Amino acid sequence: MYELFDEYRWDKAWKRLTHNEHGIEGLGNIAHVNLDCAIAPVPPHYHAGIFEFHCIVKGKRISKIGSSEYTTMGNELIFTFPNEQHSTGALPQCPVEFYSFQINTSDSDHILGLNREYSNRLFRLLKGLRDRHLKMRNMDMQMLKDCFQSLTGSTSDPYLGVQYLTCFLFRLPEMEHAASNSSSGMTPALQKTIDYIDANFRESISLQDMADISGYSPSRFKTLFKETFGIPPAEFVAFRKMEYAKEKLAGSDEPITSIAYELNFSSSNYFSSVFRKFVGYNPSDFRKIYGEPK
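Above: the chain sequence. Below: its structure as tokens.
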């Protein structure tokens, strides 16, 4: 395990500022990441004196923290304590959009430009958190977006950005626990739809099918679903198909074409292209690497 120091990066997928760029006391890296395809996993590492937060906009992110593994989805966050070992596990990272930031608590008197009293209060709040996997409300996500825009936009205002981030952090104790299946705060109608997807993801499921199950109109259902999970219903179904495909590829000798047809893909080539986007490997390569030894 090693201490990881990320560098400044600014491209289509990664927009990351380090302390060298923003110069804000107690704030480490802050980033907006939008991956449209799978990438290599992040190996085990730690950050000395730093709380690190990952706040998911859409998609799914796996976090392995110590001996525990967490699945964080849209409108959820996960964080690590200082010096805590963490990674994204052994598999490639899925397509995902998230905001991340680091709070450096090495000097508890000087965090985010707060005076000594409030800086120490924030330090105690962070140290006292017991639930690392939390459900964000729309207003929490908006504060993060406004924070990042204030720090990086054409008319950047770091003072305003820090205020947004401070409000977000002091909101943490009020956030609800995010269940492992991302069902925290889910309405019975949406839970019924998720149950339907779990039972029928091998088939062709239309937006109308899911809306009918929920009892909402298609447009209302799509809006509520994305507000709850951070991704559209069709993408959620695709994620479910790919999770099943990974299990089949790693645990059986079933032909790739058979798996593709079982999941209702029109061809193995189309299945392979979707699998590569979500997983980062062709199905055959994934089986060679992660399949059970014969």
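Residues 233-251 form the longest helix (19 residues).
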